[in-house]
Amino acid sequence: MDWGMQNRLASIINPKTNRCVMLAVDHGYFQGPTTGLERPGETVAPLLEYADALMLTRGVLRNTIDTGTRAPIILRVSGGTSVLKEDLSDEELSVSMEDAIRLNVSAVAISVFVGSEHEKQTLTNLSRLCDEGQKYGIPVLAVTAVGKAMARDARYLGLACRIAAELGAHIVKTYYCEGFEKVVNGCPAPVVIAGGKKIEERDALTLAHNALSDGAIGVDMGRNIFQSQWPVAMIRSVRAIVQDGRTDAEAWDLAQSLMG
Ligand code: 5RP
After folding, report:
1. Is 196 in the pocket of ligand 1 (CB under 6 A)?
2. 3-state DSSP assignment of residue 49
3. What is the value of pTM for the model shown?
4. How many domains does the chain have?
């Protein structure tokens, strides 16, 4: 791997801990004005100092994020569907690599929909993006998107993660599930988990802790941070688990003290 690629990866994944806390606020790319992200710049401002990277779209980046931000940017570069469609898998690449570089991103992110109607299209999108990333030293984060009809079990997620890594993704993002260690063990690229739908704060911390214990290198979490009544307490507590090796019980103590 060349120096630029390594350096960008090291800006996202702390080389001392080999772990990372990504803050995901890209939900609007197919969901529109998601709860908590009506004014994304205001939502993320108090959270950025606790995030190792910020995942978002170019429209939100350009319009709402201060150009002086120190947070490495993971730019979502797939899209083309909306929640109004039954099938969300019909995605294309939505940003050129040139524009991603102009935006000074540290990585690009793309969803793949294994087992969906547009499986081949989304997987070849990933392959093309990896080729482009290789040219310019830009790492690729592959998101194993889950269709409504698909089970979020270790067999399915293990298959999707492995395929994403085989096609060249540098980091794979997926969902936590029963038997998650099988998903991680079968994936030659580092794995991070999405938080999924908003759940109780205590449960979200347990989710993060379990994922780390099972081999994930971190989280790419959105709603369980920005939809919490205590977003700063949540990201700091998740960070305590990921970067400081705290248990979920210790992180919950921290969360409660920060919630006041
Ligand atoms: C959507 C995404 C989101 O970034 C992802 O779902 C993370 O957010 P959350 O923790 O809210 O699930 O990649 O495809």
Report:
1. yes
2. helix
3. 0.97
4. 1
User: What is the domain range of residue 197?
Assistant: 3-259
Q: What is the pLDDT of residues 62-97, one digit of tens each?
A: 999 999 999 999 999 999 999 999 889 999 999 999
What are the distances in angstroms from CA 55 to CA 192, 206, 219, 238? Answer: 13, 22, 11, 16
User: What pLDDT is recorded for position 245?
Assistant: 98
For 72, which DSSP code?
Answer: P
Helix, strand, coil percentages, rounded to 5, for the chain: 45, 15, 40
Catalytic residue among 16, 85, 135, 173: 173
Check: CB of residue 77 under 8 Å from CB of residue 48: no
At 1 the pLDDT is 72
Ligand 1 closest atom vs CA 173: 13
Q: 152: domain CATH number?
A: 3.20.20.70
Rounded Cα gap, residues 163 and 78, in angstroms: 18
pLDDT, one tens digit per residue, over 99-142 is 999 999 999 999 999 999 999 999 999 999 999 999 999 999 99
Pocket of ligand 1, candidates 75, 141, 176, 220: which has the most ligand atoms within 8 Å of its Cβ, to mutate? 220
Ligand 1 pocket, residue 145 CB under 6 Å:
yes
